[in-house]
Amino acid sequence: SVSSSFPFSLLSISSRKQRKNTIRDGFEDILEERRNSSDLKYALRCYAPVLYKGVTPCKANMLKNIVLQSDQLRYVINQVSQESGEAPDIIQEEASVILEEMAHRLQISTVRFFAFALSKAFKTLFQHVCVNEEGIQRLQQAIQEHPVVLLPSHRSYMDFLLMSYILYTYDLALPVIAAGMDFMGMKFVGEMLRMSGAFFIRRSFGGDKLYWAVFSEYVKTMLRNGFAPIEFFLEGTRSRTCKSLTPKLGLLNIVIEPFFKGEVFDVNLVPISISYERILEESLYARELLGVPKPKESTSGLLKARRILSEDYGSIHVYFGQPVSVRSLAQGKVNRSTYNLFPRHIPRKPMEETQSFVNDTAYRIVRLQEDNMVLKPWVLMASLLLQNLEGMELSVLTEQTVWLRGLALSYAAFLDWPDHAPTAKVVSSSLALHRGLACVSGGRVSLVVGEPLGPVTPEEALFNRAVSVLSCASYRNQVLHVFLRPAMLAVAMLHLSDEVYNCFSFLWDMFSNDFILCPGDTVQDFEEACYLLVKTGAVQMPQQDIVMTDIGQPTLSFFNGLLEPFLQGYQVVCRYLCEEASEGLTEKQYIPAVRSFHSVLCVFTGNLRCYEVLSSDMQKNALAALLRMDAVRKVKVADQVTLIVNKMAVNSIDDILGKNRMISHINQTQISPSLSLVAVAEDLCRDGLTPSYIR
Amino acid sequence: MHHDASPWSEIMKWNGWGYSDSKFLFNKKGQAEFTGKRYRLSGMVLPSLQDWFENTFGASVNHKSPPALNASAVPPASLNEAFVEDLKATGIPFSHEAEDRVFRAHGHCLHEIFALREGKKFERVPDMVVWPNCHSDVVKIVELACKHNVCLIPYGGGTSVTSALECPPEETRCIVSLDTSQMNRILWIDEKNLVAHVEAGIIGQDLERLLNESGYCTGHEPDSMEFSSLGGWVATRASGMKKNVYGNIEDLVIHIKVVTPRGVIEKSCQGPRMSTGPDIHHFILGSEGTLGVVTEVTMKIRPIPEYQKYGSVVFPNFEAGVACLREVAKQRCAPASIRLMDNEQFQFGHALKPQVSSIFTNFVEGLKKFYITKFKGFDPHQLVVATLLFEGDRERVLQHEKQVYDIAATFGGLAAGEDNGQRGYILTFVIAYLRDLGMDYYVVAESFETSVPWDRVLDLCRNVKERINRECKERGVQFQPLTSCRVTQTYDAGACVYFYFAFNYRGLADPVHTYERVEHAAREEILANGGSLSHHHGVGKLRKEWMKESISSLGVGMLQSVKDYVDPDNIFGNRNLL
Questions:
Q1: In whole angstroms, what separates CA B245 from the centre of its chain?
Q2: Looking at residue B3, what is its pLDDT?
Q3: What secondary structure does DSSP assign to A499-533, as a single string?
Q4: In the structure, what pLDDT confidence band is assigned to residue A157 with cuts at 50, 70 and 90?
Q5: Is A339 near chain B, with CB under 8 Å?
Q6: Beta strands at B175-179 and B128-130: parallel, antiparallel or unpaired
Q7: Which family does it belong to (chain A) (predicted)?
Q8: What are the distances in angstroms from CA B367 to CA B362, B370, B389, B484, B487?
Q9: Measured distance CA(A425)–CA(A431) in Å, rounded
Q10: What average pLDDT score do residues B252-280 get?
Q11: Residues of A with CB below 8 A from B466's CB?
Q12: Can you tell me the distance from the alpha carbon of B399 to that of A45, in angstroms, rounded to the nearest whole number?
């Protein structure tokens, strides 16, 4: 039994309202009709969606004029002109060029082309594309009543074409979509996307006032007038790990501001969860995380990638969540009258109150996306396989998958388990679909490791092994949001020191870059964790204690194993910073350095358990956590950012994470810089293997 | 001696708006008519009103909710005997008859009129009414009130819509309603300086009529001018329809005499502007009866204008109309009055078209012709109308008119005739009667106003209407409410916006409570959209809760310190404002 310093009186009060309503809509397969009727007819059918309050759609050119003549933009143009000494006309021209580069040119003919081409492609790639039609109906209603912002999760390039495809299918207004400038590298395709509603923003435009003004006014003009739903990805980029990413706030700020300024009555945010049974970019992502640079978007790359078409990627589930009213969310949190004393067309940094509201909202939406992500049986199997890297008996895997299914369901996971199919069938068909990741031989299931031709160095072997672990981890990661809170509590109970709540809170803080943990929700999350563990009988809570029950062992140890890679990974980073990092370590050097430190560690000690720390994602998150906890500081020297390590602090964090978990100390002299994983990755790149990694 | 010294309460309704002889009703044929002889609509049959009424509210003339008469459910008077004795000695008339007391226990808020109609018991009413005849009577009354610790509530025309006349239920002292109606003389007219010295109890229409006899006017015409008093205007910072020519009350007032518990506030001269520290008049203007009684006012007068001309302009939509009014304000060429009614009010005006009319040319028919022939682009469910009133010498008026119509044309506005303009202004006076008709058929209605910077006018109007619709829905109102607004005043930096809001309350247990929650939400929406707490109605007790937010707690403290100095024993204890 472990004592807790947590005030449990609070717990009993709020655990009652703990679980949200988890009744979810059913799905319809939109490909079914496509398989039975003409795609051409479908692409050419009448398309007449209803817009916000029946406004007539706005021609792209008219939209540009509205933006260029807006008070907002004119103000910034004059300001920039005064600051730079350039004539306003010239700045105006610049603004016009920016807008030209940015603006969408939605054309129904292009949309029809995509409707046709995607129908063909989807039918080849996927078994089903499932959509919750009730969500579509809610969306249709919302579009007519309020400006709507579509916020899909982002796991694949496919996401935004898929979204437009679905909206076209249901005769809903096509969204305009914020896309990264990198697409514009793909000459022809970029323009096609533009004509299907994409608008392009540069990846970074930090101090560029004019750019920001054109961009934000462009988005706001579309929103205020309700010309089209706005779509963007809160996570900012595709998640390479299949975990939701910490939301970016820039665009969300822009779409919420018109509400605070009273320019619109309300704005509806629609969280959309797009779940892929198999992600097209699966092993590409793993390699990217291991330091093989992301292939540049190019049309030829795309054509090469068409061999994906010969594979089976299972099904896609798209869940349109309940529209979230910004007005209701902001009720009592933001005092709109603070906007009364400042002209609305002059850009101003959002107030603290607003910033924290937008931040909370972003987290809330991402959690809603997570909640409605559809999980396949394979996700549960991957979680188990990763805890048994040496392989598992098929029968054991099957048995444990069934057990885990029960656990997941009692934690309200949105599990798509085939009806009426025997478990063995479910397991075997999952293995068949993911045969690139796991294989059965002699009744044992183990991860598949790619075997390059020719002799294999230990580093190459490690790299290949890591690719397969990280690919598999991207499936396990999909279930983490369901188990995360109880899992952190389990770790706190099993491994860490005396005070459970303090430990939980430490882990919560530590991992808040890796997982979606809403700022300030520590107590609530702890309560939820307790509630869930009690509910499934894994722990009891007599008086002030949290005690594991007789039957709690499997659950708690599964949870512990689930988070193990993260705990280990963070420890490796701590170790590196304490033992290895040189004085003037720059931010740029950090990732390759940790990677090589760890690969050497693995190769020389023969301990092949913690591959995941080789992922740049985990390394970045660990560094961010240490920065947040003031164990590491950033110092800008010349144009380099240097990391200053407070070894004492890092050491003590390492201590708390649990010394015994880590592999034995190694001899410093064994480390040679030439033997690094980075080098392996670089070699592979030189060999021109980059875009065709897809197996 | 103990009688109602005023004939007023005999010709006025005790449980509704205005004159007893004037009201809307549905006659036996089911047609609406307006009774009496006082207004241009009086005696006329309004054939479209029933359809409009039934379609707008989902109401039916078959579902009647007539008032239950119960004028005498009045709590007994609790008199301060010593005060009464001393008052008797002064010879100033007073009364503690139930009718006199109830008549002065309320203004014209929906909840007040509703309670009267339902025969609900008032928690607290004045214990007696006193009728001073002049300034020195008021001085005596206030002295006696201080001596005997009696609470005084000044009463002018009784048209308050802010719960300002309601007696605070927690008040344990004897409450005396000080009715200024007998102080209704013009004491002198100074033609050299064009000012008149007037007793503050005078009612607006009497003041204008008496000044007209001498060839003058004040030009101050609030919509309530038939019934509201000069003292009331000062106490609430009233605004008149023709303020563009004559100014609002604070611009019109040259000198104010006020009796307070500390004595009489006066200035030493009638200089047209002074730099003598903050203007003490501004402590009085808007003080809502919390500091003392305004007894005499010197105010500006003007010769009666040689020529008056109404006008109207139709715009394709509200946005265009607002843009035009903004431009007119920018060019500072606003006519004496310019108002923009939204489409709902335009339709409502349509419904009040009399059956036979030589006075009103046929607005709608004319308009229909308009658009069928020349101006097809106008959508009857979008178009709005601005009403105009020009004043001055004939030539100037015609010139001015052209200037305004030219501006209107640039915003797609089309001149729509004098009659339509005049009609719009007549509506202003009869609309208050219409609320009583609504209440006969399960419809409650109220109006509220705000002032707002130009750039926020459209956003505020849209958001407030939407908020009302949404709140009604959430609070179980089963029929679509009527929400309508008009821009009634233009200023250099913004406008005054007036909202009407009405709904059919069948099926609601407590319609007044529902109404109040919705109005509360609407006011919050106004404040969140950059509107003020009030443009001219005042704060009273209805909007007190927002004072801190509106003028900061330091501001409230400043006002409180004046109250504490002028009236340390809270003799003027109506508890308005602070």
A1: 20
A2: 45
A3: -HHHHHHHHHHHTTTTS---TT-HHHHHHHHHHHH
A4: confident
A5: yes
A6: parallel
A7: Belongs to the GPAT/DAPAT family.
A8: 8, 5, 20, 21, 22
A9: 10
A10: 96
A11: 265
A12: 59
Average pLDDT over residues B20-32: 86
Among the listed residues A468, A460, A470, the one whose alpha carbon sits nearest the alpha carbon of residue A681: A460
Does B467 sit within 8 Å of A262, measured CB to CB?
no
pLDDT of residue A690: 34
Residues B98 and B77: their CA atoms lie apart, in Å, by 8
Q: How far apart are CA A561 and CA A388, in angstroms?
A: 10
Give the three-class secondary structure for A370. helix
Per-residue pLDDT at B372: 40
Do the Cβ atoms of B35 and B42 come closer than 8 Å? yes
- Residue A291 CA to residue A463 CA, distance in Å, equals 10
Residue entry with tokens 């499932």:
A130
Cβ neighbours of residue A308 closer than 8 Å, sequence gap 6 or more:
A125, A280, A694
Contact B196, B147 (CB under 8 A): no
B2: region left, alpha or beta (phi > 0 left; psi from -120 to 50 alpha): beta
Is the four-CA dihedral B286, B289, B291, B292 of positive or negative sign? Answer: positive
Q: Which residues contact A76 (CB under 8 A, 6 or more apart)?
A: A209, A210, A213, A347
Residue B259 confidence class, pLDDT cut points 50, 70, 90? very high
Among A373-377, A440-444, B193-197, B230-234, name the one with the lowest average pLDDT. Answer: A440-444
The pLDDT tens digits for A317-360 are: 999 999 999 999 999 999 999 999 999 999 988 889 999 999 99
Read off the pLDDT band of A580 (50, 70, 90): confident
Chain A positions touching B530 (Cβ under 8 A) are 262, 337, 339-340
Residue B256 to residues A262, B184, B230, B491, Cα–Cα distance (Å) = 41, 15, 11, 25
C-alpha count within 13 angstroms, C-beta hemisphere, residue A552? 25
Range with lowest mean pLDDT among A19-23, A284-288, B221-225, B270-274: A19-23
By the 8 A CB rule, do B195 and B301 touch?
Answer: yes
Residues of B in contact with A336 (CB under 8 A): 528-529
Pick from B319, B465, B466 the residue to mutate for testing the A interface (most A CBs within 10 Å).
B466
Residues B188, B194, B200, B206: what is their CA dihedral angle, to the nearest 10 degrees? Answer: 80
B498 is known as an active-site residue: yes
**E strand map for A584-658:** 632-637, 640-645
Residue B467: list chain A partners with CB under 8 A.
265
How many Cβ atoms from other residues are within 10 Å of residue B269's Cβ? 8
Q: Which of A340, A353, A354 to mutate to test the interface with B (most CBs of B within 10 A)?
A: A340
Residue A2: pLDDT band with limits 50, 70, 90: very low
- Closest chain A residue to B462 measured between Cα atoms? A265
What are B430-481's pLDDT values in tens digits? 888 999 999 989 999 999 999 999 999 999 999 999 999 999 999 999 999 9
Q: Are A350 and A374 in contact (CB under 8 A)?
A: no
What stretch of H or E contains A302? helix A299-304
- pTM for the predicted model, two decimal places: 0.90
Query: What does the pLDDT look like over B155-165, one tens digit per residue?
Result: 999 999 999 99
- Which residue matches tokens 């563009």? B244
How far off is chain A from B381, nearest CA to CA, in Å? 14
Separation of alpha carbons A66 and A221, rounded Å: 8
User: Contact A336/B463, CB-based, under 8 Å?
Assistant: no
Distances (CA, A) of B524 to B468, B516, B519, B527, B550: 11, 12, 9, 5, 11
Tell me how far CA of residue A578 lies from CA of A584, A594, A644, A650, A652, in angstroms.
13, 12, 11, 7, 11
Percent of chain B with pLDDT strictly greater than 90:
73
